[in-house]
Amino acid sequence: MTPTGPVGPKSPQTNTREPIIQESEASEPEATRRDAGVTESSRANRGWWDRNADEYQVEHGTFLGDDRFVWGPEGLDEVEAELLGPAEELAGRDVLEIGAGAAQCSRWLVAHGARPVALDLSHRQLQHALRIGGGFPLVQADAGALPFADGSFDLACSAYGALPFVADPVLVLREVRRVLRPGGRFVFSVTHPIRWAFPDEPGPEGLTVSGSYFDRTPYVEQDEEGRAVYVEHHRTIGDRVRDVVAADFRLVDLVEPQWPVWNTSEWGGWSPLRGNLIPGSAIFVCVRD
Length: 289
Description:
Blueprint lengths: L29 E4 L4 H27 L13 H4 L12 E5 L5 H8 L3 E6 L2 H10 L5 E3 L12 E7 L9 H11 E12 L27 E4 L5 E5 L4 H10 L3 E6 L16 H4 L5 E7 L2
Parallel strand pairs: 2-3, 2-5, 3-4, 5-6
Antiparallel strand pairs: 1-7, 6-10, 7-8, 9-10
Helix pairs in contact: 1-4
């Protein structure tokens, strides 16, 4: 679990464009576990990213880089993984990146000849994508209501975007399937569900189970009036598989990357210590038949 906010780290690379900083609210929210529906989750997370996008880019911009495609904190690179298919076959493909943030993955796709569209819930995150540049479309929209015609894309991808933060993941998956052409592939990564049973700490204190893996109650940060300002939803591995099947996708692979020796970085609760013992990410490779 990532109670300090959603993450989608990419491989280390220098970010040569300094982000523009805007002032954010300083009040500390209350962390709790309670139900949060589709509308509340969407509203809370849009606001969270709009308020925290600048700080996120300052803190993680160098690690993220501008144009790398990495699936999670372990640093699994699409160049090596080829989960979307061989890089040489991406040219001319229409690709939707969901939860794009500053659209690093879309820039990588452009470099390989693809035609990406970068979609995010947060206007401020897309401002950072615009700041870095890239010459591809940026779209602000909810992943549960994609503003595209049926069969618009050959591929779709989401590196730690959207799926961990929505109350109805099947709705999102069905929308993705709708906009994919027959034979299209959707690959998405999320925090590995087992991490919800452990404290979100990178050191030894994060290695002891502190909660039930089977507790699906959402993690919520709320203000003094009880309004959610950030929401993250837990699904077990089995839940995720059933969600994929319920959306009429075919699951062709489930990747659990190992922590590589070269990666000495810490990011929130992720670290080499924990990464060598428990998985941090789960990557689902799905096909629309």
